[in-house]
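Re-running Transmembrane protein 53 to confirm reproducibility after the cluster update. Everything else is unchanged from the original entry.
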Amino acid sequence: MASAELDYTIEIPDQPCWSQKNSPSPGGKEAETRQPVVILLGWGGCKDKNLAKYSAIYHKRGCIVIRYTAPWHMVFFSESLGIPSLRVLAQKLLELLFDYEIEKEPLLFHVFSNGGVMLYRYVLELLQTRRFCRLRVVGTIFDSAPGDSNLVGALRALAAILERRAAMLRLLLLVAFALVVVLFHVLLAPITALFHTHFYDRLQDAGSRWPELYLYSRADEVVLARDIERMVEARLARRVLARSVDFVSSAHVSHLRDYPTYYTSLCVDFMRNCVRC
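Result of re-run:
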């Protein structure tokens, strides 16, 4: 079972989403409300207690919620080296749906920063395989993502993760990461492209057609607003129902903290619209 090998959290409401009922219809019959199973993919270095605040948005409304954050060393180093180790984690994550027998329920992804996007890109690829092609995704929310090759922003994010490490170790890891990025994605970019497609390019060309909501801020110093706006334009060009909301002043993955009511309403309205589609 994938659940034995993945450090995840699942919240199941007392009344599961597929068993909830609306008030009786005019004909006297109750109509079934199928809330989606929500999968939260955390940012690099994210703690489960951080994701729990977002999880509450959906759990309070009767959704089953799965929370997972990929290990930071895979996010920053494996992907930068072109090693698709996150694909294995993405497969285990999707296997959870079968373990809990919820694979027939609609799915909503809520993806945070590039750390979540790097994992999500493999989810998209796996959804094209025989094992997972019957899973029904109804929508995806992107929070502070995706960003395209912002080395300074990535170093800021990694520095925040390593904040409590020894100063010398922190410096060595930051230098190592910068060298890997420059070597594989600048100097050797044409060679790297032969065996590994950057996650940003993969998302731009993704064949998925469900609605997408991009929540970002021009004040974000980790993922640049222009990268997200360019992604939205690319998705619209592929006839995907993509919408974006600029929070203007909030920092990276801080939109819920700064605008809790507005952020929550955006997520809930998007979820409900996706389920009705």
